[in-house]
Write a structure and sequence with these properties.
heterodimer, A: about 180 residues, alpha/beta, 5-stranded mixed sheet, about 20% strand, B: about 550 residues, 7-stranded mixed sheet, 5-stranded parallel sheet, disordered C terminus
Chain lengths: ~180, ~550
C-alpha cells in the first residue's frame, strides 16, 4: 500500500434498537458489497443487544478495507431505524454525510413494519455505487422465501422515496458525487 | 477461490473443519460462542461442556488420544480452565490442542477486561493472535502446526472485534488440511506415556524443563515465521502491533512501517530489535495491557508505549491516531444509547419486583438476570464471577447480624448453576450459616444471555438432540438441602412471594427453583421437546436416523 493513499472506503453506520433488524440490514448490505466484488468488513457488538438496548453496526466497503470499525465522524451514511437513536448516533456522521431516518419511510405505505430495515436499505441504495441487483439478491439470500415479496416492495418503496427528492433527506447534507 | 463473508468465529470453525478437528468443546461466552455453533452447523462434532475446566480436560483427553481438539471460551472462562491449562503445558499433547480465548477489551459483554496474553506467559504456552477473519482462518493451521511439531497446547487469542466482525475470507478450496501445509489428520489411538502425562513431582520436574526447551525452540522459529511480518516503509515511524490493533494502526498511519506480530508468545525479540533499530521512532500499538511494550523494553529495545489512558477499553482508528500523536487530552465520552434490559415478557420481572419490595440483599450472578441490577428494580447487590452468588451469599450470611443475614438471597441462573454453582451448594450443606440460606435458581431452560445455548439441565446437546438431563432439584436434594421447591413465578407471583418470605424467615437451607422458559427460547424449546417426544415414540433405530445429527 502506498503511503498516504489509502483507497477510498464507503462507511455506513446502521443503528436502532435490539429486535429491529439492524444486524440483518447490515448483513444484507455487507453481502451486497461482497457480491459486487468489493472488499468489505462489518462490525458490531453482540451479546446484550437482543435485550432491547441500542444497537449499531458498521459496514465498510471499497477496494481494500482495514479497520472493521467506522471512525467517529467519518460515516458517509447513517441509517437509523428508531427515532430515539438519531441523536445518540449523529456524531458518527461526517460533515456532509447523509442521515436516513425512519420518518423517511411513510408508515402507511410500508407493507410490513418489520420491513423498515429493508425499506431504509432501499433508500440507501439510491446513493450507493452498488448495483441494485446485488442488494436485492442479498435481501433474498438473507430472508426466507415467504418474505421475499414483501421485502422487495419495502426496498422499492424506500428507493422511490429517496429518489423522489433530497427534501426527505436530513439537512446533514449530501454525499459526494 | 471462493470468497465468503465470515466472522472471525465462523472462520475459526471453518478452519477447524478443514484441519480435521475431531472434537470441539467449550462453554458459551460472548464473544466466543459462535465458534462451536458454526463448527456444528458445518458438520463438525461440537459439544457444550458444563464449564471451561471440563471442556479443556475433555479436549486434552482427545489430544492425548491423538485426535485434534478445539476448546473455546471467553477470556474469563480461561480463569476457570487455568488449573488444567498450566499442567497441560507440562504434559503436552499428541495431536493438536487449540484453546481459543476470546478477550473482551472494552467489556461489551463481560465483567472485566483482563488481558489473556498474560496467561500465555504465565503458563508458558505459545499464543497465536489473528487480526481479522482471514487470519483467523489461516493462523488456525499455523497453530495446529506448532501444536503438533512441539506437542504442546496452543492458545489462540481473539478479541471481540476479531470474533464478531465479518470480513472476506478465501478458504483453501482445493481441500482440507493438506492445502495448508500441516500433516495429515492423525488417527486416534492410545500410547502409554506415564512419565510424560502423570504429573507427580518426579515427572513434573523434567516436564517443566522440557516445556522451557520447547518454548526456546518456538521462539527461534518465530523469528522467521510468517506469523510475524515486517512491512517496511518510511523509516520515520515504525509501529509494532498485533491483533485488530494492526488494522486500526494501518489505517491511522498509512505511511508507517509495521512489525505485525501474529505469534504473541514467545515474542520475536530479535526481529523487533532489528525493526526498532531501523526506524527513527518505534511505537507499540496494542490493546489492553502494555505487554509487548514492556517485554521489548525489558530486552533493551527502545520503543514507545501508549499512554496509560489507552490501557482501558478498545482501541479504534481515532484512538490510535491519538496514541501516535501522544495526545492525552480527555476523550469524548462514547455515545450512550438505551441500555439493555430484561425482555418485556421475561418471566423474572416478578422475582426482581419481589426482591426489591422486601429489600433483600441479593448476591447475584452472571447472565441475563444480571440485568435485574438496572432500573426499575436495582435488585442485585453483587456480581463477580460465574457461580459466585452462592459463596458470596453464604459469606454474608455468616457474618451479618441475624436481622440482616435473613435478607440475604443468592440468585443464580440454571446454566450458571451447572457451570459453577454446584460446589457452592455443597459448601452450603457443609458449612450452613446460623440463619440458614436461600438460593434462588432462575431456571429459564437455556443459557439465555449468550443466545440460548443448551446445557446439561436442558437435556439436549449443542445441536438440540435429546441426551441425559440433569435434575437441578434432584441434585439439590442429593446434596442435602432440606427444602427444595419448584415454582413458576410468572404463573403464580403471589405464591412465589409467600414462598420466598417463608423460606427467608426459616433458619434452614432452601433452594427455590423458579422455573419458566425464557421468552425468547420458549418456542424453540417446545419444538425440540416435541421432536424428542416423536423420537421416543418411534423405534430406536428410526430415532437415530431422525436425529438432527445422524451420527449420534
Amino acid at each position: 500500500m502506498s503511503a498516504d493513499a489509502l483507497p477510498r472506503v464507503t462507511n455506513v453506520v446502521l443503528a436502532g434498537l435490539g429486535g429491529q433488524g439492524v444486524i440483518k440490514a447490515s448483513d444484507i448490505l455487507a453481502d451486497a458489497a461482497l457480491r459486487a466484488g468489493l472488499d468489505v468488513k462489518k462490525s458490531e457488538l453482540h451479546g446484550m443487544s437482543q435485550r432491547g438496548g441500542s444497537v449499531t453496526s458498521d459496514v465498510r466497503f471499497g477496494t481494500r478495507v482495514l479497520s472493521p470499525m467506522v471512525p467517529r465522524g467519518e460515516a458517509d451514511f447513517l441509517v437509523v431505524l428508531a427515532e430515539s437513536e438519531v441523536e445518540v448516533t449523529r456524531a458518527m456522521l461526517r460533515t456532509g454525510g447523509v442521515l436516513l431516518s425512519p420518518d423517511l419511510i411513510p408508515d402507511a405505505e410500508l407493507p410490513n413494519k418489520r420491513s423498515l430495515n429493508v425499506a431504509l436499505l432501499g433508500a440507501l441504495s439510491r446513493y450507493l455505487d452498488l448495483p441494485t441487483e446485488a442488494l436485492l439478491s442479498a435481501v433474498k439470500a438473507a430472508l426466507p422465501d415467504r418474505l421475499h415479496a414483501v421485502n422487495e416492495r419495502a426496498f422499492e418503496l424506500g428507493r422511490k422515496v429517496a429518489l423522489a427528492g433530497a427534501a426527505a433527506v436530513s439537512p446533514a447534507g449530501h454525499p459526494r458525487p | 477461490m471462493d470468497r465468503q463473508l465470515l466472522s472471525g468465529d465462523e472462520a475459526v470453525a471453518l478452519a477447524a473443519l478443514h484441519a480435521g478437528v475431531a472434537l470441539g468443546t467449550g462453554y458459551p461466552g460472548t464473544p466466543s460462542t459462535e465458534i462451536l455453533e458454526a463448527f456444528s452447523e458445518l458438520g463438525g462434532r461440537a459439544q457444550w461442556a458444563p464449564n471451561e475446566k471440563v471442556a479443556l480436560e475433555v479436549g486434552l483427553g482427545a489430544a492425548f488420544g491423538n485426535a485434534r481438539a478445539l476448546v473455546t471460551m471467553k477470556h474469563v472462562g480461561l480463569n476457570v480452565a487455568a488449573d488444567p491449562l498450566f499442567t497441560a503445558a507440562y504434559t503436552g499433547v499428541n495431536a493438536a490442542l487449540i484453546v481459543v480465548t476470546a478477550d473482551d477489551p472494552g467489556m461489551a459483554s463481560s465483567q472485566n477486561e483482563q488481558d489473556n496474553r498474560r496467561y500465555a506467559v504465565a503458563a508458558g504456552l505459545p499464543m497465536v493472535e489473528p487480526s481479522d477473519s482471514q487470519e483467523a482462518y489461516d493462523f488456525f493451521f499455523r497453530a495446529v502446526e506448532i501444536s503438533e511439531r512441539w506437542r504442546i497446547p496452543v492458545l489462540f487469542r481473539m478479541t471481540t472485534r476479531v470474533c464478531h466482525s465479518k470480513a472476506v475470507v478465501r478458504a483453501g478450496s482445493n481441500g482440507p488440511a493438506a492445502a495448508a501445509g500441516i500433516g495429515s489428520v492423525p488417527v486416534p489411538h492410545f500410547e502409554h506415556d506415564i512419565s510424560g502425562r502423570v504429573m507427580i513431582p518426579a515427572n513434573a520436574r523434567p516436564a517443566h524443563r522440557r516445556l522451557r526447551a520447547k518454548l526456546a525452540e518456538i521462539a527461534a522459529w518465530g523469528e522467521t515465521s510468517p506469523l510475524n511480518r515486517v512491512e517496511a516503509a518510511d523509516r520515520r515511524l515504525g509501529i509494532v502491533t498485533s491483533g485488530v490493533s494492526y488494522l486500526h494502526a494501518a489505517e491511522a498511519a498509512p505511511g508507517a512501517g509495521f512489525l505485525k506480530i501474529g505469534l504473541v508468545n514467545p515474542l520475536p525479540i530479535e526481529l523487533a530489535r532489528t525493526f526498532a533499530a531501523g526506524v527513527d521512532r518505534c511505537v507499540v500499538v496494542e490493546e489492553g495491557d502494555p505487554i509487548i511494550a514492556d517485554s521489548l523494553r525489558t530486552e533493551g529495545i527502545a520503543v514507545e508505549s501508549k499512554p496509560e489512558m489507552y490501557r482501558f477499553g478498545e482501541l479504534d482508528v481515532a484512538r490510535v491516531r491519538r496514541i501516535l500523536a501522544g495526545d492525552t487530552t480527555p476523550e469524548d465520552p462514547p455515545a450512550r444509547g438505551r441500555p439493555p434490559e430484561l425482555c418485556p415478557a421475561c418471566p423474572y420481572h416478578t422475582v426482581y419486583a419481589t426482591l426489591r419490595k422486601h429489600d433483600c440483599i441479593a448476591a447475584g450472578d452472571i447472565g441475563c438476570y444480571t440485568l435485574g441490577v438496572l432500573p426499575p428494580y436495582e435488585a442485585l447487590d453483587t456480581c463477580v464471577a460465574m457461580g459466585a452468588s452462592i459463596g458470596v451469599g453464604l459469606g454474608l450470611r455468616h457474618v451479618l447480624p441475624p436481622n440482616e443475614a435473613r435478607r440475604v438471597v443468592s440468585v443464580i441462573g440454571d446454566s450458571t448453576f451447572v457451570h459453577s454453582g454446584i460446589s457452592g451448594l455443597v459448601e452450603m450443606a457443609y458449612n450452613p450459616p446460623p440463619t440458614g440460606h436461600v438460593v434462588l435458581i432462575l431456571d429459564n431452560g437455556t443459557t439465555a444471555m449468550t443466545g440460548q445455548q443448551e446445557h446439561p439441565a436442558t437435556g439436549r446437546t449443542l445441536d438440540h438432540a435429546p441426551t441425559g438431563k440433569l435434575s437441578i432439584e434432584g441434585l439439590a436434594k442429593a446434596i442435602g438441602i432440606g427444602s427444595v421447591t419448584v415454582i413458576d413465578p410468572y404463573a403464580d407471583p403471589e405464591g412465589f412471594e409467600r414462598l420466598l418470605l417463608e423460606r427467608l424467615a426459616a433458619s434452614e437451607l432452601s433452594v427455590i427453583v423458579a422455573r419458566r422458559p425464557c421468552i425468547l427460547a420458549a418456542a424453540d424449546i417446545r419444538k425440540w421437546e416435541s421432536q424428542a417426544a416423536r423420537l421416543r415414540a418411534s423405534a430406536p433405530e428410526q430415532a437415530a436416523a431422525d436425529l438432527p445429527m445422524g451420527d449420534r
